[in-house]
Hints:
Helix content: 40-55%
Number of strands: 11
CATH superfamily: ANL, N-terminal domain
Strand order of the largest sheet: 4-3-5-6-7
Distance between the termini: 103 Å
Structural class: alpha/beta
Number of domains: 1
Oligomer: single chain
Amino acid sequence: MISRILAFTVPACRRAGSRAVLGELATRSNACGSAVVLSQRRLMSHERNVVQSPFGSVDIPEKNVTEYIFEGYEKYADKPAITCGASKRSYTYGMTYEMVKRMACGLLSQKGCAMRQHDVLGLLLPNIPEFVPALHGGLLAGLTVTFANPLYTAEEVCRQFENAGVTAIVTLPMLLPVAEMFKSKMKHYKGTICIGGKHDLDKNIYGFEQFLKENHRSELPEIDCHKTAILPYSSGTTGLPKGVELSHYNLVANLAQGSHPAISKYYQPEYLEKKETILTIPPFFHIYGLNAILHMVIKSKNHVVSIP
């Protein structure tokens, strides 16, 4: 039997077919091998392009940005937090955080703006101290906050706020006509808070100072730090301004990076108790002026002077 198997010969046509199949398999194998090699080369090239920080990894806490920057404010409650460089109007850390909480409650209160979590609050403000309670009151209430350049035309502001889904605005008396123009375009507008103005409830306008003094009561929500916190818009250099969604976690991560002692002297041991007065020029409606300057100064408990 064994001799018969060894003596058996495959017909020529079958041998040819086998060679063809083997050749196709070899071609496929070579192609797969080439693809694997190419993939490995791309991975190696990608790894070579990854830039590692010389300062190591950064611990990013799971906190909302308001909680993160005001952490430990009680120790500096009587120290100046922010001052208007024009009017010299100034608030301490204790006053500022109290205003933040009252603003948050007023925005949610049924006797106030009756906003709901994830509604969008629009700020139409220059660099003034009240920008802080307006912004962080909104964030503490669980809202998304967007801001527009107060030098924009009314049409530009309305386009941005409509695109962002704004349902309430914080602004100044001189910019009230812009807010009124926007209100006329909206079906479910919830109110305008006017810094330096007075209540005009027939027009759904709330004076900022009186709004805070009314001390509204509301239950503040738990905030998911991965939800959208702010919605800044590009300047429109290459087209119309576009919104950029940034979560609390995004903002906190950036602040944590900038808090490294090798980057900021205010986190070096000899500076921990030294507090300075820092002048800010970039606008708060720009992400650099907001997070890299205003938030950094508040987090380090220094004193910021704003220029309207």
